[in-house]
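Form 7-S
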Amino acid sequence: MDILVGSYSEELAGMPGNGEGIYRVSFDPETGAFSDLKLLYSCVNPSSLVWAREERHLFAGREVFAEHQPAVLSLEMTPDGQIVPLSCLALPGELPCKIAYDPHHRRLASAQYWSGDVAIVSLEDGVFDANPVYTKQMGHGPNLSRQEGPHAHYVAFTDQGDVLHIVDLGTDAVVSHRLGSDNAIEETSCLKLPAGCGPRHMAITKDERRAFVFCELDESLVTLARDGLGWRVISQQPGFAMEDGVDGSGAAIRLSPDERHLYVSSRRLSAIACFKVDGEPELLGEIESGGISPREFIVTSDGNWLIVANQNSNSLTSLRRDRDTGLLSPSHQTITIGSPVALVEM
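Output:
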C-alpha cells in the first residue's frame, strides 16, 4: 500500500515548514511499518491533496498568502510512478487549505481559509479552465480573535457532484450550493451551527443522508441529518474535554469504511478520539497519536489502520484498529517526514 503525503515546505503563520512538497511512502498493512520514502514532487505548501485514481490525476493546493501566489495544481502520475505537471491556476484568495474533486462533472473546489472564499473550476484532461466561479459567506462569529470574518475550511461534493457543501469556521455555518453545468450557483441553503464552535471539517456517509462536523474552537462533534439541499442539526457533544476560556485545536475527522465508527483528532492534546456511530455518537475512548499535533489522519481502506500525520513532530505514525470494536492501539511504527499535513491512500 502506498500513501501520498503533503507537507509544509515554507513557514506559514508561525508554523515551521520542514518538508519539501509531496512525498510517497510505502505502508505495510501487516505490521504498520513505513518504508521507501520518496519526494515525489517538489512544490510549496501542498496542504491538501486529492487523488483521482481512475484518471491518475493528483490535485494539490498551494497554501500561501497573497504575496506568495496561492494556487491549485493538477498533476498526472505516469504508469512508472513519475509525476507530470498539467496545470496551475492562480487564486485571488489567501491560504487554499482544502480541495475537493467532482469526477462526474470534472470540477475542483478549493476553500481559501484566510480570505473566506471558495473557488469552483472546471477541468478538461486534468487542465484547469481559466474562469473559476467564486462564492463567499458573509458575517462573523462571536470569537473575534478567530472569527472576525468568514474562514472557509472544508468543501465536499454530493448528489453526483451537483451539490457543494462548505464548512465555514468564521461564521459557524455549513453552506450548501446547488451548481449548474457552468458551475453557476442555482440554489443555496445555510445551516447555522452553535455560536463560537468554529466548524472545521466534515465527514459524510456514503448514502449522503447523515454527516458529522468536527469543530476546531470548542472541539465538539455535531451530528447532522440531510434536509433537502442542506442539513439540520441532530446533536452536539464534546469531542474532547475542554477548559473554560481555552480555544480548542480540533483537526481531522474520518469515518471507518463500514461507517460504524468515527474518529477525530485534537492537536491540543495530540490525541485521537473514537466514537461508535451506529446510532447517536458514543465516545469509546481516546489514544495518543504517537506524535505531536495530529493535523491529519486517514483510515486505511481495509479498515485495519489509522495513519496519522503529526505536524509538529515531523512524523507519520500508525495505529492498529480493531474492526469490530473500533478501538485503536499503538503499533510503535513511525517515519520522519518534515511537517506532514495531508494524507491520501493510493
